[in-house]
Write the structure tokens for this entry.
Amino acid sequence: MAATMSKPAVHLHAAPATRRPVDYVWALARISLGWVFLWAFLDKTFGWGFATPAAKAWINGGSPTTGFLKGTGENALGGFFSSLAGQAWVDWMFMAGLLGVGAALILGVGTRVAAAAGGLMMILMWAAELPLTTNPFMDDHIVYAIVLVGLAMANAGATLGLGGLPIVRRHAILK
């Protein structure tokens, strides 16, 4: 009998041997979008004067959701969204979402969970603005949600992030 040669086992959790240029593009998109979320958290928390003046900072008693949600009153779903404005539980969930999604994307750990949470946040913000005034359907919230799905599907945390660590590769929740 002739000896048969077997192929080495393929490990689905193994890190790729080489990175392609597109992997770095996805990694830069991940870090950039992570910074968008993290910066929103920081500015709303401390009122560094970009989108949030110091007097309206969360640490000074301001509500991070009031400005945006109160401005939705005339929109299609405005009654629902404006009723959420300024509620403590909404503020806490929103800020936890900004911080969690931002940190996860920048670090490259929990990218799938961050993509789901961030995508949900983006869809809710898009819905709060309906009807759109500059485009009948598409706006930056939908584009960000699509990019978040792409980040998760591309395993973007494995390049220039902690997503390539063995513990992350072994546990799907950390990817």
